[in-house]
Amino acid sequence: MNNSLFDLSGQVAIVTGTSRGLGQYFAMALAKAGADLVLTSRDRASLASFEKEVHALGRRAVSLELDVKNQESIERMAAEAEAAFGQIHILVNNAGCNVRKPALDVTWDDWNHVVDTNLRGSFFVAQAVARRMIAKGYGRIVNIGSVTSVFGYAGLAPYGASRGGIRQLTMSLADDWGKHGVTVNCLAPGWFRTEQNKVLYEDQEWVDYLIDRIPVKRPGQPHDLDGAVVFLASEASRYVTGQTLLVDGGISTGAMRATVNRPLSSGNKA
């Protein structure tokens, strides 16, 4: 295998939502593959310690303020990122949020908060960065989706709508921008413990229920996503665009028991 296909040395990656959670793992995976980083958060100060970790790897990094619900903030971040490094090669569109409620309890503001952050925000960040990528004739955009991009779950109506939208948006942008040398793909994690959902994992009965439905019999660990994000950000994926890559332990197979948990008779008895 040609390892240079996965080498990101000399490239610059923006990773949104890097103050905590999976965003930091995505950023570190890219940095370990050689990329310099633009880190973003609504609270720039919250990025200080993580930026030091990136510098400790010998990579350059800048931290920028970004509110994905504010178009001026998006445009300012993109301009500042370009000014800092000259060219942006990779965007990981990770910033997101969730509200867990029965559908009948979802408010107008709940809906707007989730969909505006996850879907509208991702589009306008991609648009602002793609303008700059297109001018250079090269780019890799990785939109972060979810297993809810392809599966529906009760209690996650706004989130599922936003992540399903990310999958469709990815295909549309791939068609729009492919001729300019920009690929657009969706990385869709399955069930991972994050700051947003950690309370669920305190319920062992629910964890057992979840594990029973995952073919590899465990929830995801953050480093399970490292290879996928580097692949989609690198030359290894140069002919891959408009795709959704599920990293979910197989739960999207619709895993369920088709037999009971006991040996079945091999024939019919009279």
What report would you give on this structure?
- With 270 residues, this protein is an alpha/beta fold.
- The chain has a single domain (3-250), classed as 3-Layer(aba) Sandwich (Rossmann fold).
- 38% of the residues lie in helices and 14% in strands.
- Strands 3-2-1-4-5-6-7 form a seven-stranded parallel sheet, with helices on both faces.
- The chain is globular and about 50 Å long.
- Residues 263-270 have low confidence and may be disordered.
Elements, N to C (H/E): EHEHEHEHEHEHHE
- Helix amount, in percent? 25-40%
The average pLDDT is: 92
Strand order of the largest sheet: 3-2-1-4-5-6-7
Outline type = globular
Number of strands: 7
CA radius of gyration is 20 Å
Pfam families: adh_short_C2
Protein name: Gluconate 5-dehydrogenase
Domain Ketoreductase: 11-194
GO molecular function, one term: gluconate 5-dehydrogenase activity
Secondary structure elements and pairings:
Blueprint lengths: L11 E4 L6 H11 L3 E6 L6 H9 L4 E5 L5 H15 L4 E4 L14 H29 L2 E6 L12 H21 L4 E8 L14 H9 L13 H8 L10 E4 L23
Parallel strand pairs: 1-2, 1-4, 2-3, 4-5, 5-6, 6-7
Main attributes of the structure:
single chain; about 270 residues; alpha/beta; Rossmann fold; seven-stranded parallel beta sheet; 7 helices; about 40% helix; disordered C terminus
Briefly characterize the structure.
Belongs to the short-chain dehydrogenases/reductases (SDR) family. This protein has helices spanning 22-32, 48-56, 71-85, 108-136, 157-177, 204-212, 226-233, and strands at residues 12-15, 36-41, 61-65, 90-93, 139-144, 182-189, 244-247. By secondary structure, the chain is an alpha/beta fold.
